[in-house]
Structures are given as structure tokens and as C-alpha cells.
């Protein structure tokens, strides 16, 4: 092989530096605006301005393209960025001296955080250079969305695999990462891999900054980034301990070369742990962030990673807002404090479901709990009795539960299919919740307001009426709760063109199986161990729980009985363990919230941990109905991933609280020693991968006689130059020379293979692409239409004469016909020769014309009505 391992290094490095500098420029444009919200954070919002800036630029371009038809072209994006720059300069100029002082005061944190971000970005660039090909698994689906949105200049975006339709999928992540690709003009193969590196860098940045804010030190931020983004599950530890053939990491380290085996053997097995039924079949998907980053499928749950963390950071800003700590702020000051945060929260909330729809219920729940706690503290600041403040919490929770209970029966069983008894139970639960909400509302407004019941609480303002004081936390609560609703409103371009997949059997189902504890512990063993130790130390250390021995004994017996009953009913230890941790966490949260000066970072961490436990417990009993054979496969995949993120942010906060009490209570630290040991076990998978990544001079792709050897490079479409050179000749021409979204006839695809290659690699529109995925996105109701289109494709390629099929070209607006390697392998050569009568826009220079790839132009008169 003539290529050296350094042949592409300078080119790849140049692309990576240009991409990173572009993201930095976007961040600097938006930093003065981000500073208004994050001015008290350890990096003053400077590092968060990169993901937030891309988010704000992307949303504004997307919304304006829908509202006033401003094209999302490179020129349109540059003009919009210039408008944001003017607005940002108007904010920065009066504060220029303060901005400089803040940067100087935070320079140590900023410098080290930027070093870690740079390392994360270029580490992942190097990972992609050693496995660059955007092909296999579902990468073609991700590439198809990505290239289509690079071409797209309007909203709603065209569906690249269903001519005449718009995308019916949460495409926000593909869209946001397509913006740097548009601005740089890089080829899709490079832009895709650089987007993967950006996902990892943004995830490290956001988790580092959020952890640093919650922990108060850079080291806690680094620990947060580690446990959120960089560790694996305990599969590597079990493989080492068992020394099982084919699983022991040493077997992979001794292989030459090891990367392919490690990636497609060891690493893949680590993501398929929990079985939804008797093994070895019925595997579910148990991805963890590090797996997702190095596997490099740009799925919504991956592209949403940074935006989820940004949303959590904004939620913590809302928790810390002066509106709660100084609820008597004048309206002008209140609006000045509230408005920048409100805008960013609304935009973040708008893009959250558009990027990954499954994130909406979980993180909206986190935000709701945070705002309710904030209203409780605001009431305390106003001198309202603690009992009345608790009624405020009960009121909001009860009314929220009423809506949940009212929606449950149809969601479970489908419209008009819920059993009568279930409907009656839902109605009773709804009415009871509404009654509790009304009773709480009456008690909140009706209780005596003669000061606080605690000498540490503030006296009520003598000039403020009882009604006015009680109205303030309630009005603040309503204002903050309205922000997600505002987010849904400004996300209207998505919702107006999105149809939820129709499920006649209902959206939710009752899970027939539970997770086995050994499998569940392999996935979440580190998290559960640390959470158990921290919660035990936290609950037992609170003075509110220093009860008499007989009361503790009675409580222990009751808890043991509940634990045993849950174990017996579920048939697994997972549910009772999660329930026990959930109850203990709630008790800890209540005890902290009852303090006169509660630790807000601890409360925020507890809220995240409780939400993670709640969704993991729910996944043991319920699942989302979909088209997959294994009931809980997609449910565990989507929601366990969210639990991993929530626990990754929460656990360092809880551990920090234990360490703060370490000198007084050394036994608490001892509770965390097993977690520290398991952390080392959780590092086996990522360390093994990194260890074997760069110890080879060339890349080997595949096994056996078909294996390919080549130098590392960053071009995700490079494999086509050698393995599919004829196809690449046409693909390269279409990318460079054919603008817009023309409809191109090509062979349809099933799923996961080298099919629908022109639409996937160029962003042009196919009559129909991967039928399986289109069917999933649209809920199964379009299978007939998809098969009809597939029949049209086969009839055109198989026809001896095209004149009788002319109506199909007119009906679907087919402008080009592609004959590539897939088409030549699927249809007879003599039938494909009929297209030679048309103009060949581009033909690959193969000496054997029967093997060359060709793009034909459909005659213009075929695209107009015959009588026209």
C-alpha cells in the first residue's frame, strides 16, 4: 500500500482546526448574551456559549425560514450571525470593563476547561480517523438526514427517502450540526465525523461546567465529565473476572490488529446486557455515552446530549434566580433579571423535543420539580408559614397528577379500548387529585399569615397585604412554568408538520418481563452503589431522622415488608431496590429542603437522582409500544440513557456533600469505597478501547479476504473511492454540481445495508429509501404506500419500454435516474440499457460500460402534463 499513516494528517488537522475555530467564533458572538444568564458561573458562560450560540443561531435561522422564508443558506446564516453580533455588541459595549474583569478573575477555570475541551475534540477526531467510514449499522440513515439538511434552505425540510413528504422525525440534532457544514462547505464525509467530535467536545464542556458550578471546584467538574461521558458499564469488569473466552479484554489486546475486534465484538457486547425475557435471545439496547460517541451513529439521543446538559444548566440558573431569593423585586428589575433567562430557556425547551422527542417528559419533569422547590423557598423568603408553602407544592403536584391520570387509560390501551374498570379507576384518581389540588389551594390562601413559624424566617413586609405576599410566589411559579409552553409555541414549525405515529393498540404497554438484578447491576452497578452509599450517609446524618430506637425498628420492619412484597410481585430485586432508593432520596430531599439555609446544589442533584430512579422504576413495568419484537428494547434504550445522564450529573454532587462531612463522619466516606472500586471497573471498557486505538500504523477494515488496509483519515466517504469507485464518481459530482433537492430514482433499501446510496450520500430525494425506517417513523400506517412506490421503482428498472410508465415520472417529479452498483446487481443489464437513450449527466470512467455508474436526466417534457 502506497499510503503512509501521515499522508492525510495535515489535511485532517486543517479541517479540524477550521471547524473548531468556527464554533469558537459562534460562541464569542453569543458570549455577551450568555453572560447575562451565566455571569456567576465559574467560566462566566464563555465555554457554554459555543453550544448555546449554535443552538440560538440554529433556532433563529430555522424559525425565520418558516415564518418569513429567509433561506437557511450560507449567506443567510452569515447575515443572521451578523444581526446577532450587533445585538451582542450592544449588550457588551456598556459592560466591556466588567466582562474583562470577569474573564481575568475566572481565567484559571476557563484555561483548564478549554484545555480539556480541546483534548476531547481532537481525541475524538483521532478516533474517527481510525474508523472513519460512514457506513454500516444505521450510519446511512444518519448521513441521509445530515446531507439532506445541508442542502435544505426551507422549513419543513424535505424527506430524503419519501419524495413529496417532509421529515416526520426529530431532526433537530442533524440540523444544528449541519450549520457548521454549510458555513465551512466541507464535504459530508468530513463534516459528519467532525460533528461526532463536536458532540463529544460539547458534552465534555457542558458536563464539566455544570459539575464545576454544582461542586464549586474544577475537580468536581472534571469528575462530573468523567462519570457522565467517559466511563462504561461493568461488562469489562465481569469479563476480566470471569476470564470468559471471547470476553476477556486481554484476548482483544493480543489480537493484531485489535480495533475491529474490539469495536464489533467486545464493545458491541457491552451495549447488549439486559434481556427482556429468557436469554440468550430478547436482548435490549443498553448504550452508554462513551459507546455512543465512539460508535458514531449520529442518532437523536447522541446529538441531543449537549443540548440536554445545556437545558439542565439553564434549569439550575432558574433555580438560583434572584427572583426566588428576592421575591419583592420591582417589576422593572424583575423583568431585567428574568428576560434573558426566559428567552434562552424557551429556545432550549423548544429545541429539546425537536432534537430528541423522548427527552421531553423526563427533562420537563426535572424542570417542573426545580421550579416547585424554588416557589417553596420564595414563599419562605416572604415570611409565609412553612405549612402554607407545603400546600403550594401539594396543589401543583396534585393538579399535574390529575392530568396524568386522565390521560393514562387511552395511552395504555388506545382510544376507546380501555377496560371499563380501568376507565373508572382513572376517573376516580383524576377527581381525587383535583380535589386534593383544590383543598391545597384553599389551605394555601386560607391559612393564617401572621408571620413565619420559625424565628430564622423573615417577617412579612408590614406594607404588604397577606394576599399580595401569597400571590408573589404563585405568580413567579406560573411565569416559570409557562416557559416550556412558550418553548412548544416557538417550536411550532416542527409540531405543525409532525404526525405522531398512529398506534391503534395505544402508546404504552405493561411490560411482561422484569430486568434481572445481575444484568441490571452490570449496567448501573457503579451508579447504584454510589447512590446507595451517599443516600445512606445523607439520610442517617440528618438530625431530623434521629428518632427513638423503637420507632426506627418499626419503620425498618415496615420497609422490609414493602421490600419483600415488591420483590415477590415483580419477581426481581431491581424494582424493590429502586423503590427503596427512591423513598430514601425523597426523605433526604425533604430534610434538606426543611433547613433554614438549604444547599441548593445538593437539592438540584437530589432532584436529578430521584428523576433517574423514577424513570428506571417505570421502565420495569411499562414500555412504549413500537414495531420492534422485543417489548422493552427501545424503552430501556431511550430512558436508561437519560438516567445515565441524570445520575452522571447528580452523583458527584451527592459525593461532595458526603466529603464535606468527612472529618466529622469518617464512616460516611467508607460507604463510598465500593463505589470508587467500581469506578475503576467501569473504566475498563473505555481504557481498553483507547489502549488499542492508536497502536497500528494503518487501518484494517473488516475481516477475512475482503479486509481493506489504508492510512487513517477523516473522510467518512473515503471507503467509496476504493470500494465503490464508480458510485463515488457520481456521488462526488452530485454533491459539487447539482444544487437543491431533485428527486432521483434509485433502488430502494430495506435497512442497515449499502442501499439508497445516492440519497444518503448527497441529500437528494429518493422515491423511497429505507422502507423499514420510513415505516417506523410513520407508525406503520404507510406500509402500503411504501410498497406501492417500491413496485413503481421495480417496474421502471425492469421495463423494456419506458413510454407506458411516463406517468410515474410526472406524478412523483422524478428528474434523474441513477444506475449504480446496487441497481446493476439487482436488475437485468439489458433492461438498464434503455436509459442510454437519455442524456447521461455524469458517467464513471470505467472501461467496462456495463459496470460504470451513470446518472441520467429525465427528459423535460416527461415532467409536464401530457396535455400541457
What does it look like?
This protein is mostly helical and 868 residues long. It is built from 38 helices and 9 strands. It has a 5-stranded mixed sheet. It has a two-stranded antiparallel sheet with strand order 1-2. The chain has a two-stranded antiparallel sheet with strand order 3-4. β5, α33 (757-762) and β6 form a beta-alpha-beta unit. α2 (49-67) packs across α7 (172-184).
Q: How are the strands ordered across the major sheet?
A: 6-5-7-9-8
Largest sheet: 5 strands, mixed
Overall mean pLDDT? 83
Fraction of residues in β-strands: under 5%
Percent of residues in helices = 55-70%
| N- and C-termini, Cα separation | 58 Å
Cα-atom Rg, whole angstroms?
Answer: 29 Å
Shape: globular
User: Which blocks of ≥5 consecutive residues have pLDDT under 50?
Assistant: 245-258, 448-464
Q: How many E strands?
A: 9
Note the total helix count. Answer: 38
Structural class designation? mainly alpha
Amino acid at each position: 500500500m502506497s499510503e503512509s499513516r501521515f499522508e492525510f494528517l495535515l489535511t485532517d488537522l486543517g479541517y479540524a482546526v477550521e471547524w473548531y475555530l468556527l464554533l469558537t467564533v459562534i460562541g464569542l458572538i453569543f458570549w455577551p448574551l450568555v453572560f447575562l444568564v451565566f455571569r456567576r458561573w465559574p467560566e462566566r458562560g464563555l465555554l457554554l456559549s459555543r453550544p448555546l450560540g449554535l443552538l440560538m443561531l440554529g433556532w433563529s435561522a430555522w424559525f425565520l425560514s418558516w415564518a418569513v422564508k429567509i433561506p437557511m443558506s450560507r449567506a443567510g446564516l452569515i447575515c443572521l450571525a451578523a444581526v446577532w453580533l450587533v445585538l451582542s455588541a450592544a449588550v457588551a459595549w456598556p459592560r466591556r470593563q466588567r466582562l474583562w474583569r470577569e474573564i481575568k478573575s475566572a481565567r484559571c477555570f476557563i484555561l483548564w476547561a478549554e484545555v480539556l475541551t480541546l483534548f476531547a475534540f481532537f481525541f475524538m477526531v483521532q478516533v474517527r480517523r481510525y474508523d472513519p467510514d460512514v457506513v454500516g449499522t444505521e450510519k446511512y440513515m444518519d448521513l441521509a438526514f445530515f446531507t439532506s439538511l445541508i442542502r435544505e434552505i426551507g422549513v419543513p425540510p424535505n424527506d430524503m427517502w419519501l419524495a413529496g413528504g417532509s421529515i416526520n422525525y426529530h431532526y433537530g440534532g442533524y440540523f444544528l450540526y449541519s450549520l457548521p457544514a454549510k458555513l465551512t462547505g466541507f464535504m459530508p464525509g468530513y463534516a459528519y465525523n467532525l460533528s461526532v467530535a463536536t458532540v463529544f467536545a460539547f458534552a465534555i464542556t457542558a458536563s464539566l461546567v455544570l459539575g464545576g458550578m454544582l461542586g464549586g471546584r474544577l475537580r468536581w467538574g472534571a469528575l462530573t465529565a468523567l462519570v457522565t461521558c467517559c466511563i462504561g458499564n461493568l461488562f469489562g469488569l465481569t469479563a476480566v473476572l470471569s476470564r470468559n473466552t471471547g470476553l476477556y479484554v486481554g484476548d482483544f489486546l493480543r489480537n493484531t490488529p485489535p480495533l475491529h475486534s474490539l469495536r464489533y465484538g467486545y464493545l458491541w457486547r457491552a451495549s447488549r446486557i439486559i434481556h427482556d425475557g429468557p436469554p440468550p435471545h430478547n436482548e435490549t439496547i443498553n448504550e452508554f455515552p462513551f459507546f455512543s460517541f465512539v460508535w458514531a451513529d449520529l442518532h437523536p439521543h447522541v446529538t441531543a446530549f449537549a443540548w440536554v446538559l445545556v437545558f439542565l444548566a439553564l434549569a439550575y440558573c432558574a433555580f438560583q434566580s434572584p427572583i426566588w431569593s428576592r421575591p419583592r423585586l420591582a417589576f422593572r428589575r424583575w423583568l431585567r433579571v428574568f428576560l434573558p433567562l426566559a428567552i434562552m430557556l424557551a429556545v432550549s425547551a423548544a429545541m429539546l423535543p425537536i432534537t430528541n422527542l423522548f427527552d421531553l417528559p423526563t427533562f420537563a419533569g426535572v424542570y417542573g420539580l426545580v421550579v416547585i422547590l424554588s416557589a417553596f423557598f420564595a414563599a419562605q423568603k416572604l415570611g409565609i408559614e412553612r405549612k402554607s408553602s407545603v400546600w403550594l407544592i401539594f396543589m401543583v403536584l396534585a393538579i399535574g397528577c390529575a392530568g396524568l391520570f386522565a390521560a393514562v387509560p387511552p395511552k395504555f390501551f388506545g382510544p376507546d379500548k380501555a377496560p371499563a374498570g380501568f376507565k373508572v379507576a382513572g376517573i376516580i384518581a383524576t377527581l381525587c387529585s383535583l380535589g386534593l389540588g383544590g383543598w391545597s389551594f384553599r389551605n394555601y390562601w386560607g391559612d393564617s399569615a401572621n408571620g413565619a413559624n420559625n424565628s430564622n424566617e423573615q417577617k412579612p413586609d408590614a406594607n404588604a397585604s397577606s394576599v399580595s405576599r401569597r400571590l408573589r410566589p404563585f405568580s413567579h411559579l406560573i411565569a416559570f412554568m409557562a416557559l416550556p409552553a412558550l418553548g412548544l409555541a416557538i417550536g411550532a414549525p416542527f409540531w405543525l408538520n409532525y404526525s405522531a405515529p398512529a398506534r391503534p393498540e395505544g402508546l404504552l404497554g405493561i411490560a411482561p418481563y422484569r430486568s434481572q438484578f445481575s444484568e441490571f447491576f452490570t449496567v448501573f452497578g457503579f451508579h447504584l452503589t454510589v447512590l446507595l452509599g451517599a443516600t445512606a450517609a445523607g439520610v442517617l446524618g440528618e438530625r431530623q431522622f434521629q428518632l427513638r430506637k423503637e420507632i426506627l425498628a418499626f419503620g425498618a420492619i415496615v420497609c422490609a415488608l414493602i421490600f419483600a412484597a415488591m420483590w415477590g410481585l415483580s419477581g426481581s430485586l431491581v424494582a424493590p431496590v429502586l423503590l427503596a432508593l427512591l423513598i430514601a432520596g425523597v426523605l433526604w430531599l425533604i430534610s434538606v429542603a426543611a433547613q433554614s439555609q438549604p444547599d441548593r446544589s445538593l437539592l438540584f442533584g437530589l432532584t436529578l437522582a430521584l428523576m433517574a430512579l423514577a424513570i428506571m422504576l417505570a421502565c420495569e413495568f411499562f414500555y412504549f409500544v413500537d414495531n420492534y419484537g422485543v417489548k422493552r428494547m427501545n424503552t430501556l434504550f431511550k430512558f436508561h440513557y437519560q438516567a445515565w445522564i441524570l445520575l452522571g450529573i447528580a452523583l458527584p454532587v451527592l459525593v461532595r456533600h458526603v466529603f464535606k462531612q468527612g472529618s466529622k463522619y469518617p464512616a460516611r466516606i467508607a460507604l463510598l469505597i465500593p463505589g470508587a472500586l467500581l469506578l475503576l471497573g467501569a473504566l475498563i471498557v473505555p481504557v481498553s478501547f483507547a489502549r488499542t486505538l492508536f497502536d497500528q500504523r494503518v487501518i484494517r477494515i473488516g475481516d477475512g479476504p475482503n479486509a481493506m488496509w489504508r492510512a487513517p483519515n477523516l473522510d467518512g466517504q473515503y471507503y467509496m473511492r476504493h470500494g465503490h469507485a464508480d458510485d463515488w464518481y457520481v456521488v462526488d459530482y452530485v454533491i459539487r454540481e447539482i444544487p437543491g433537492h431533485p428527486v432521483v430514482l434509485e433502488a430502494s433499501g430495506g435497512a442497515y445495508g449499502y442501499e439508497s446510496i445516492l440519497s444518503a450520500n448527497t441529500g437528494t430525494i429518493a422515491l423511497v429509501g429505507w422502507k423499514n425506517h420510513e415505516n417506523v417513523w410513520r407508525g406503520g400506517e404507510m406500509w402500503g404506500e411504501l410498497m406501492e412506490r417500491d413496485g413503481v421503482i421495480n417496474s421502471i428498472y425492469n421495463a423494456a419500454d419506458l413510454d407506458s410508465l411516463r406517468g410515474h415520472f410526472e406524478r412523483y417529479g422524478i428528474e434523474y435516474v441513477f444506475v449504480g452498483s446496487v441497481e446493476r446487481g439487482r436488475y437485468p443489464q439489458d433492461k438498464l440499457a434503455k436509459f442510454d437513450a437519455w442524456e447521461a449527466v455524469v458517467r464513471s470512467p470505467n472501461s467496462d460500460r456495463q459496470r460504470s455508474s451513470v446518472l441520467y436526466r429525465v427528459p423535460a417534457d416527461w415532467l409536464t402534463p401530457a396535455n400541457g
